[in-house]
Amino acid sequence: MTDKAIGDRLEIWRGDIARLKVDAIVNAANSSLLGGGGVDGAIHRAAGKELLAKCRAIGGCPVGEARITLGYHLPARYVIHTVGPVYKGTVQDAILLSQCYENSLRLAAQYHLSSIAFPAISCGAYRYPIEKASKIAIDTCLKAMDDLPDIHRIIFVLFSDKNHAIYQSSLELILKDLMAVPVL
Ligand code: AR6
């Protein structure tokens, strides 16, 4: 895949994910799916009480997995709820975080969605260091995109300038590695 092809499908924005008009926004939920603070709180507030009722009916979601609901009063058509790991510094954290991105993308593809926005899953209350998490997020999405041609746009939405800059530099590093010509 060329730099341009990747750049066309992968974007990094700063702002409130609950305001995005895309096919699906991803929620960094907890395993009860019954709402909370951070991005979860912002999404539930903007979506309205119908979202909470639907999440209650789903009955929870294990760490690393994803579930889908409508977006109700949100500009986005759907919400994909995933549960990131609480950071402990183990290899298992990285595996579970990667599964959050991959399972969310696969669910979006099953629903024939083409644009999806992710927050920095686990990087708030769950304390995953953003430098590490951004590389896992970008790497996992780049790999999954090869298999999922109908996903045309993946947007990473960061709430602060600092986190936005960290994602930008992680993306640049990963692209540079991808484009590097192997020395024979
Ligand atoms: N738009 C985009 N990003 C946001 C927004 C927003 N509106 N609000 C916060 N962030 P967190 P977690 C960023 O804590 O670490 C909840 O209580 C925030 O700055 O929302 O996965 C759940 O119910 C941070 O970088 O999610 C769980 O109990 C990132 O989103 C728990 O927190 C994720 O922070 C999940 O913790």
Computed structural class: alpha/beta
Question: Which small compounds were modeled alongside the protein?
Answer: ligand AR6
Q: Output the CATH topology.
A: Leucine Aminopeptidase, subunit E, domain 1
How helix-rich are the residues, as a percent range? 40-55%
Labels describing this entry:
184 residues, alpha/beta, Leucine Aminopeptidase, subunit E, domain 1, six-stranded mixed sheet, 6 helices, binds ligand AR6
Written description of the protein model:
- The chain is of the alpha/beta class.
- It has 6 helices and 6 strands.
- It has a single domain (13-180), classed as 3-Layer(aba) Sandwich (Leucine Aminopeptidase, subunit E, domain 1).
- Helix content is 46%, strand content 17%.
- It has a 6-stranded mixed β-sheet with strand order 1-6-5-2-4-3, sandwiched between helices.
- Strand 5 (115-118), helix 5 (130-147) and strand 6 form a beta-alpha-beta unit.
- It starts with a helix and ends in a 5-residue tail after the last helix.
- 39% of the residues are buried.
- The mean pLDDT is 94.
- The structure holds ligand AR6.
- The site of ligand AR6 has 24 residues, from strand 2 and helix 2.
